[in-house]
Amino acid sequence: MKRIFLSLYTAFLLCSLFISCAGNQANELVYYNDDTLRFITDQKEKELMWTRELESVRLLKDISKNEGTTTNFRLSCQALCVVEASEYSEPVYPLLPGFSSLNTSSMMKDLRDFLDSFCSKVSEWKFDESQFESEFIFSPALFKFDVENQWENFFGVPFPYQEKKSDEAQKAQNGENGQNVDEGSQVFTRCLYGEPFFDEETIEVPVRFYAQKGSVDVLLYISKDKLKVNQLHIQKWNKGSK
User: Fold this and answer.
1) Alpha-carbon gap, residue 89 to 197, rounded angstroms
2) What's the 3-state SS for the chain?
3) How far, in Å, are 27, 92, 194, 207, 242 from residue 101 at the CA level?
4) Closest Cα to residue 97, out of 194, 227, 181, 5?
5) Cβ neighbours of residue 224 closer than 8 Å, sequence gap 6 or more
6) For 131-176, what is each residue's pLDDT tens digit?
7) For 90, phi and psi rounded to 5 degrees?
8) Is the pLDDT of residue 20 over 70?
């Protein structure tokens, strides 16, 4: 009986020892797995390609002081928006509805000089053939015809310019009272340039010509290499616009 009891007790001890060793091995195995996952994670983090930090320089910049303000001026969000506006924002140009943006910042000086000369002559109802491409010399004639024949329909007054007549025709029109007819009076009082559009060969410039009773929107097509007018088209008549 004692021998059987000793045998069972010995078997129980062996089983307990086996279970204890198995538990330690499992703990060691789990610890080993945790260490492997940590190692893999670290390796993955090192291999990652991180994007460049946005506004890194601006975030590190000390904005508590500004050279454009006095030392006793308290900076606020609103004040910084005003002080730094020129540095971080683009200029805003007015827009005339139905016409164009007035952003002429892309207009070169030679183009502006040409437009000033051309539009000044058109305002006096003079057309210089040297300012037109030779193959488009008919363009000013068509433009003159359209404006002179549609002027009274849109503005309700006769066209304000008369070509110079011969002495006989002038005397007949003046009559016996000897009054002179108004010749060569100003057709347009001023003009306004819109934002130009550039392509490979042509510059497209919207121009608004102002008259006493309204304005006329005209689109000019100018050759880029020679700075000469190819065509000019009436876009819109504006009655009563100032």
Assistant:
1) 23
2) CHHHHHHHHHHHHHHHHHHHHHHHHHHHHHHHHHHHHHHHHHHHHHHCCCCCCCCHHHHHCCCCCCCCCCCCCCCCHHHHHHHCHHHHCCCCCCEECCCEECCCCCCCHHHHHHHHHHHHHHHCCCCCHHHECHHHCCHHHHHHHHHHHHHHHHHCCCCCCCCCCCHHHHHHHHCCCCCCCCCCCCCCCEEEECCCEECCCEEEEEEEEECCCEEEEEEEEEECCCCCEEEEEEEEEEECCC
3) 76, 10, 6, 11, 17
4) 194
5) 198, 200, 201, 202, 203
6) 999 888 899 999 999 999 999 999 999 998 766 544 454 444 444 4
7) -90, 155
8) no
Which amino acid, 14?
L
